[in-house]
Write a structure and sequence with these properties.
This protein is about 50% helix and about 10% strand. The protein has helices spanning about 10-15, 40-50, 60-75, 80-90, 95-105, 105-110, 120-130; strands at about 1-5, 20-25, 30-35, 55, 135. The longest helix is centred in the middle third of the chain and has 15 residues, at about 60-75. The protein is elongated. InterPro entries: UPF0158.
Length: about 140
């Protein structure tokens, strides 16, 4: 397994952002945006010369994102009040935004030591890295 200093919070944001193309630099651990208008000529040339150096990061589909949140509530949330609140958030008109907002109402779910149950996209990011054979330095995770 290759150890890279990937910023897990940035990876979570990238997985949750549709419409933009991001790549993980397998030498540095840096997440790079590939602009639609090819303004970053240096990155474009590097991507053409060394395509094996960069791993495309595919964003999570809406369906998968919804399933991840449902699984998270079912498997990780023991508090019936919190569980009910998060399930109701998934029934709102904007379920993704509502779910994220409701998580802030329950810091014990987001930050409880030890170890904190990871929010759903953070867990997905960690799983994606593992599937790609990438590990994080001990102090990062």
């Amino acid at each position: 397994m290759k150890i890279l200093p990937v910023d897990i919070d940035d990876l979570v944001l990238v997985l949750d952002s549709n419409g933009m193309e991001f790549h993980l630099d397998l030498e540095t651990g840096e997440i790079r945006l590939r602009p639609e208008d090819d303004l970053d000529e240096e990155f474009e040339q590097l991507l053409e010369r060394q395509p094996q150096r960069f791993l495309y990061i595919e964003p999570v589909s809406s369906r998968d994102g919804f399933r991840i949140m449902e699984d998270f509530v079912r498997e990780k949330v023991d508090d019936p009040r919190a569980s009910d609140s998060l399930v109701r958030a998934l029934e709102d008109r904007k379920p993704f935004r509502s779910f994220k907002d409701r998580l802030f109402d329950y810091p014990e779910i987001r930050e409880s030591p030890p170890p904190p149950p990871p929010p759903p996209l953070r867990q997905l990011a960690l799983e994606w890295l593992a599937e790609e054979g990438i590990g994080l330095p001990q102090s990062t995770d």
